[in-house]
Design goal:
Elements lengths: L18 H8 L3 H9 L8 E2 L5 E2 L2 H15 L4 H13 L4 H42 L10
Antiparallel strand pairs: 1-2
Length: 145
Amino acid sequence: MLEVAENSSSDVDRNGMSIAEAARRSGVSVHTLRYYERAGLVVTDIDRTDTGRRRYQQLDLDWIRVCTRLRATGMSIKDIRRYAELVAAGRGNEKERLALLEEHRAGVIAKIAALEDNLGLIDHKIDVYRERLAAGDAGHLWAPA
């Protein structure tokens, strides 16, 4: 069984959906869907009609959601591809998948900490401006000479 995001819906009929519908439902562009397939980020072969048009299943959309979430958190295409390869290979490599995800998680936590630190500086500057404006003394804030 493939790893997919939780809460997948099963409202796609057995014929699947067009690439345009898959793009609409997944929130990514048609171009991105094609790119994910070319880049080796998808874990299943996308079904095709007799005329060669792609037909996506809910499982495909669930996996695309995983990919877009990993990408949004800064995982490299190379690492997403590796993760997809491991998932597509099936059982027996769960420790490697776990290690990859744990490493990425540690990086995300470090980025969050850096953002929180930067946010602290921004909050401080906002407080300074508010205090100075309220006191009518904003003219002494940093300004080029």
